[in-house]
User: What shape does this take?
Amino acid sequence: MWQYLVNIWDSVKTPLIGMRLTWKRLFVPAVTLQYPDERWELPPNSRMQLFVNMDDCIGCIQCERACPVQCITIETIKAVPEDVEETSTGHKKRLHVKKFDIDMAKCCYCDLCTFPCPTECIYMTPSFEDSVPDRFGLVYHFAPMTPEQAAVLEEKARKFDEAEEARKAAGRPARATAAV
Ligand code: SF4
Ligand code: SF4
Assistant: This one.
């Protein structure tokens, strides 16, 4: 009889102990969020997806050199003097950026590429939700130049170089160009 009562008491006590944490947490505010409807406010200086404002990129490849995992690939074409434009920061764009790719699958989010940029056009954004079904979708192509546009600019640069070589060979002075 005594053992019978002990068993009944155990069957009541055991779930009460098991539910102790549940009862303690039941009346305190929840710390979980209903993502994606609710989101944590991210801490300042969080490191997430990179972005490049190509209007201000001068193709100096300082970011590419700074990257410890070589996930930035830049290709440029020399701009002829009449095509040299200016960035919003006042830097001359002496190179056209033909290719500017960042492989975010390789990126370790160290942020080292952003510091040497003279025009501050490469920076971390607050975006971190760019998942893709294929890892090659994480190679971001920032340069808007088409192959046809690149071919035209390459031909222009080649002709300019040839003309310069001919001028030097003939000992003629450099032609006057806009201040670049
Ligand atoms: S954050 Fe680091 S790893 Fe990623 S592209 Fe920049 S330098 Fe490379
Ligand atoms: S350092 Fe800045 S300006 Fe130079 S290539 Fe990289 S993004 Fe462009």
Remarks:
- The pocket of iron/sulfur cluster (ligand 2) is lined by residues 52, 57-63, 74, 116-119, 121-122 (CB under 6 Å).
- The chain is about 30% helix and 15% strand.
